[in-house]
Amino acid sequence: MDKIRTRSCVTSFFMLAALALCPVAPTAGAAEADAKQRPSVSFPHEMHFDVAEDCLSCHHDYQDGENVLDEDLLMETEPEETMVLNSMDREELSAVSCVSCHGDDAKTGPMDAFHNQCISCHEAEKAGPVMCGECHVRP
Questions:
Q1: Residues of each annotated binding site
Q2: What is the mean pLDDT of residues 57-62?
Q3: Mean pLDDT of 72-86
Q4: Which of 11-15, 33-37, 44-48 has the highest mean pLDDT?
Q5: Residue 132 C-alpha from the chain's centroid
Q6: I need a surface site. Which of 75, 103, 128, 137 has the fewest CB within 10 A?
Q7: Transmembrane ranges (predicted)?
Q8: CATH class for the region spanning 40-135
Q9: Which is nearest to 85 in space by CA: 38, 19, 17?
Q10: Which residues contact 41 (CB under 8 A, 6 or more apart)?
Q11: Which parts are annotated binding residues for heme c?
């Protein structure tokens, strides 16, 4: 009987020790905290408007490899001089805002869309920031 009790106590001890050493599963808010590790980007829309060839240099709707976005749609809205990307109220967004197509459920989400579009243009033009902290400026 003592052997059984001893074996049971030792087994219980090791099970509790193993449980104590296991990492705790992250809470639902932990993933959001990780995603918001860097601050949102302040996007100087007016400055980009001044240096881009046209609005379709950035805004796009590709079908069969061709940008078919009607530039007149872009003229229906008056963008702010500087916008904070990915923190806008989605109910107030126009049909041509980035997250209207690159929302959370899209094939290419907002973060990948911004990174692909912005960084590839900055590298091609040899102008503008390409490093994380140059766009995601900490206060």
A1: 45, 48, 55, 58-60, 118, 121-122, 132, 135-136
A2: 86
A3: 70
A4: 44-48
A5: 12
A6: 75
A7: none
A8: alpha beta
A9: 38
A10: 84, 85, 86, 114, 135, 136
A11: 45, 48, 55, 58-60, 118, 121-122, 132, 135-136
